[in-house]
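Field: COMPLEX_INPUT
Field: COMPONENT_COUNT = two
Field: RESIDUE_TOTAL = 387
Field: MODE = joint
Values follow.
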Amino acid sequence: MKKTFDNKAWFLVLPVFLMVLFNSLIPLMTVVNYSVQETFGNNEFFWSGTRWFEQVLHDRQFHESLMRQIIFTGLVLLIQIPLGLAIALCMPRKGPWVSVCLVLIALPLLVPWNVVGSMWNIMALPDIGLLGKAINGLGISFNYTRQPLAAWFTVVLMDVWHWTSLVVLLCYAGLVSIPDAYYQAAQVDGASRWSVFRYIQLPKLKHVLTIAILLRFMDSFMIYTEVIVLTGGGPGSTTKFLSIDLVQKALGGFDLGPAAAFSIVYFLIILFLSWLFYTLMMRGEAK
Amino acid sequence: MDGMQGTSILSWMAWTAPTALFFIFIACCLVAMTVWEILVPGGDPRHGILGLDTTRGDRLFISLLGSAFICLAYLAAFGSNLWPAVAICVLYAIAVFRWV
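Field: COMPLEX_OUTPUT
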């Protein structure tokens, strides 16, 4: 049978192109335009060349924020991906408990980001918060408003609480889609629990894990609301991540030029690392 | 650029000639790649020296992304005269399209 090609189908994706144009391309173009100009308001702009990029690249505050961001994202990925996978493996696949588990697991994802920040802000307070009081009750000095380590602990714990559910749900969806025939074959061969995980479940979860890692990487690398509500970037600047630094530059100082240059460098880092993750995880897939 | 900013409906986007040229260049690259693919189809992904399987589109993406980082690194190390960086970017893109 002769295969026919109908390029009119492209018109069906036209709305998506238009949406991407308006919510991504046009704002991105505007940011690029701002990044090479100086403005004092009143929609007046003056050419400044690459000055803002040089300023950002030599800015010690930017380097420190970037380093904090990389450490935070690395920690979050190291905890959330294995934890999410482990919880998904422990969840029941059949029976009445499936719905209960899914609802309970999904609950943190339904809480708005600023509410998450407020909840943890109160819960980690050393004098009245459940978490803060409990840790201090154990004899460990804990005050996230003054101690950088306590602040980091609270921020990471908050993110793990909020977002591990996403990894769990993705992994669970991947696990239930594995046909029973694989498990039956493993049972016939007398495969151990570890072998089933290593040679059946993990390879079958490759795509799901790639999506989970990419989503968690991009989201944690752009974290803003929860942290600004919880610690405000403090104590000092110890939890000031890239997005907080950027917002302070753009809105606090109204330095649109430097903030735009900062945004472009930030965007390029996210784009490069996302591409790297995706490429490394999908390597050899074409074969 | 004053007239462009003052009278155009796009004045809020604060266009400048260099940034407009930059985006026109990107658009031209995409059009040229499309025409190239129609005239000489690229076929399956190719296994390059980095061990990656890449199509022509992938190689364009790697070239553009790499060029952005080359320019930033050059800017940080040597300052604002970016013409040598542009030359390095062109050589880098040729290498990517030839070997990656």
